[in-house]
Specification:
single chain; 437 residues; Lipocalin; 3 domains; eight-stranded antiparallel β-barrel; 5 helices; 17% helix
């Protein structure tokens, strides 16, 4: 009798709870949560995109560049993704989902409008498959696959005692070639998980994340603009030798030796002033208005002139830095101007990229169109420079528009140099402002 009463009570209670509890999760597109994406760098999958056969293709794991991302829902119909690279989180909201007329399959399109790239993929049963498409390169696409619920970046077990890659490494890329360049590898490791970056004389490779597996190091990053993959092997003499891939179009070798005192040339020494005459340029902004460095709004102010491109992630990092840096100073003392040199030779298209960039990055200062991103073109437009090594390059000019210092490249928040640069620039700007009063 007691058992019967208990069962009746349980049924009634269950019905009451069922009536007042909302469903745990609703979504009508991609499943929420963590995903593992991969880009196949070397060859096309066996089954072509859009084929009616099994959508889950077998990729060659040695040629996969992996990254992780989340799908988050704001409501039942609106969602966005967040790409993970070590401590970096990149929010992407330009996403469409629906039936593709050509394939009659559910298709997701993830746009990276600032970089003019996109991911287009068929979705089915927890799997996305398609391509990462780079619009500014002719016929450039890399096969893409993503699987829901997988949070491992690199598959493989590091073992009980994984090889330790942590520390500072003196690196050489493209050794034994005329294109050889130096770098410093900065890695932190916890058990078999590794994060870090490489700094070069023209910038850094931003946030890299990976793993120690056996005697090999694997690091990757994907941010919508670049797809980086670093692989290295620890040699018997404790040096590293490996490969660096940038998308499917670039592959080179690199070597490294641990050196806690590894250094690169001073970023203020790389670009010189050929002509010490005052800067006197005029360029159009995204709306077609001509803006001159000699306009009244810049008169009597210290100026930070950023030579950049909207296509450049290091430039994006520096733009955010400058946007926040000027907040510590009076607008009567300090001004920022960005001059963009763009991938597209078409002026209208380039100005549209600048407009999108300025809007998305919430940039309050003028962002001007300088021309095509060929470095010789940039020097012709700003003839006071002896050369242009890197995008970005920052010109520090006094109130009379004469260049005081030039900082080549930019070390972003993935590097310890980021804070150092902020402090150095603060000292330089404050000194110039003090001398103007």
């Amino acid at each position: 009798m007691q058992l019967t009463r208990f069962l009746l009570f349980a049924i009634v209670l269950g019905n009451l709870l069922q009536g007042c509890v909302e469903p745990i999760s609703k979504f009508n597109a991609l499943p929420p949560g963590i995903w593992r994406g991969t880009l196949l760098l070397d060859r096309k999958p066996v089954i072509k995109y859009g084929d009616d056969r099994d959508i889950v293709k077998k990729f060659d794991t040695d040629s996969e560049l992996p990254f992780n991302f989340e799908v988050n829902y704001e409501n039942d119909t609106s969602f966005y993704i967040v790409i993970h690279n070590a401590g970096e989180r990149i929010e992407v909201r330009d996403i469409s989902f629906g039936k593709d007329r050509a394939t009659a399959k559910d298709t997701v399109v993830i746009e990276f409008p600032v970089y003019d790239t996109q991911i287009k993929a068929i979705y089915e049963d927890g799997v996305m498959e398609g391509d990462w498409i780079v619009n500014y390169r002719e016929n450039y696409r890399i096969p893409f696959k993503a699987v829901h619920g997988q949070n491992l970046r690199f598959e493989g077990v590091g073992g009980a005692n994984p090889t330790d890659f942590s520390g500072t490494w003196q690196c050489v890329f493209e050794p034994d070639t005329e294109d050889r360049y130096d770098a410093v590898g900065l890695f932190k490791q916890v058990k078999d998980s590794v994060v870090g970056t490489f700094t070069t004389e023209t910038g850094d490779y931003r946030f890299l994340e990976g793993k120690s597996i056996g005697d090999k190091l694997y690091l990757s990053a994907f941010d919508g603009a670049h797809a980086f993959m670093f692989v290295a092997k620890m040699m018997p003499d404790s040096t590293l030798t490996g490969t660096f891939r940038s998308g499917s179009h670039y592959k080179t070798q690199w070597e490294a030796r641990k050196n806690k005192d590894a250094r690169l040339k001073d970023a203020y020494s790389l670009t010189g002033v050929k002509d010490n005459s005052p800067l006197s340029f005029s360029f159009e902004n995204e709306a077609g208005k001509v803006v001159s460095i000699n306009d009244p709004q810049y008169k009597g102010k210290i100026k930070l002139i950023q030579i950049m491109g909207t296509w450049c992630p290091n430039c994006m990092d520096e733009t955010v830095f400058l946007r926040d840096f000027v907040k510590d100073y009076s607008p009567e003392d300090l001004a920022v101007v960005s001059v963009c040199f763009e991938r597209y030779k078409d002026e209208t298209r380039s100005k549209e990229m600048i407009r999108k960039f300025k809007e998305r990055m919430q940039i309050p200062h003028e962002v001007l169109y300088g021309g095509h991103y060929d470095k010789k073109t940039a020097v012709e437009k700003i003839p006071q420079l002896d050369k242009l090594m890197s995008y970005p390059t920052l010109l520090i000019a006094d109130k009379s528009n004469r260049i005081v210092k030039i900082h080549t490249g930019f070390y972003g928040p993935a590097t310890p140099e980021y804070t150092k640069f902020k402090d150095e620039l603060g000292v330089i700007v404050s000194s110039l402002i003090k001398n103007t009063h």
